[in-house]
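User: I'm writing a tutorial on reading structure tokens. Could you give me a worked example: one chain, its sequence, then its tokens, then a sentence or two explaining what the tokens reveal?
Assistant: Sure. Here is the example chain.
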Amino acid sequence: MSDTRPTTSDVTAAPDAHEVRGQRIVLEGVTKRYPGQETPAVDDVSLEIPAGEIVMFVGPSGCGKTTMLKMINRLIEPTSGRILIGDDEVTHRDPDELRRHVGYVIQGAGLFPHLTVAKNIALVPGLLGWDKERTAERVREMLDIVNLDPDEYADRYPRELSGGQQQRVGVARALAADPPVLLMDEPFGAVDPLTRQRLQDELLRLQEELRKTIVFVTHDFDEAVKLGDRIAILEVGSRVAQYDTPEAILAEPANDFVAGFIGHGAALKQLTLTRVRDVDLHEAAVAHVGDDPATAIAAAEALGREHVIVLDRADRPLRWLSLRELNRPGALSTVSRDDDLEAVTLGSTLNDALDSMLTSSHGVVVVTGRRGRYEGVVRIETVMGAMQALHTGAHASGRAVR
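And here are its predicted structure tokens:
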């Protein structure tokens, strides 16, 4: 039996625990056997997932991580064992009723193509009997939370959205009824690397605000390190090879399988654990839509800047404008959003920030926080200095470099 429950002190040590809106999940001796197969798909797994944390299931193909995920909301029925969400055993609940209280996000979003964005998001509230006014208000709120303007996107159809936008709508739909638990099965696997990074950042930003219990299946260990409060590394049969924080797994792999799964570059992965929120941010020259361009130019010149970051009425960054562009008539009267604006969140890693800077012509990258609001900028010198300090510290503390 693989018994990998965190200690009580581990579970209760989460910061701001009073704000947690998720529920713990407990697997006790969970097994799944399929007829005609000698080896169980999941073999006697016991695991506790603390409330309000992101726990990543990661491992090779065929290790049973998706099967474990689907047993939590009974899309797959366990052969034996118990699964609890909070204090309720899921096998004692009606499956349909259970799933209406557990968010579920899959690769490709799984939106209904014949329904508008608003109607896709409203599905579960409708099944729960919410009235139209409450549902409409929730749809607008969820679109705002995932950084999609309700006035622009509510009446669109999935085919009119990019892959990243569809995935955001999928997350909004899963969270619409405010479930305590969110299950995510390779949700970002079908998008390009840049969109994937942005969706990862968006999930971290959402989690800071919502504090749900999130179980996330991935085959990508780097994604697990970036997103997870804890990582469960699974071998074939869902035997849990190691269940711990990313820092602990990188510093002390439990066995050769874990060390091999991490692969080379563990020291570099240690550096990715540092978040943008951990370094000093700087202030750029800022203007809002509707401001006087002359005032914006004067503010930029006072700071020695040649560009201004323009924010909307909710303080969300739209695009950079040069001083030359600001001299044009009506430069700030209407400003469109630059979909290619290089931006990271407070939860992004320093490697994410560095990657964004390498494609930026400004030498800085915009940082956003709650609801996508502007927080400042981070400079390449800051990121490089922080990464050098971490690298030096890793050697000084005697960590193994693989």
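What the tokens reveal: The chain has 17 helices and 17 strands. Residues 278-386 form a domain with the CBS-domain fold (CATH 3.10.580.10).
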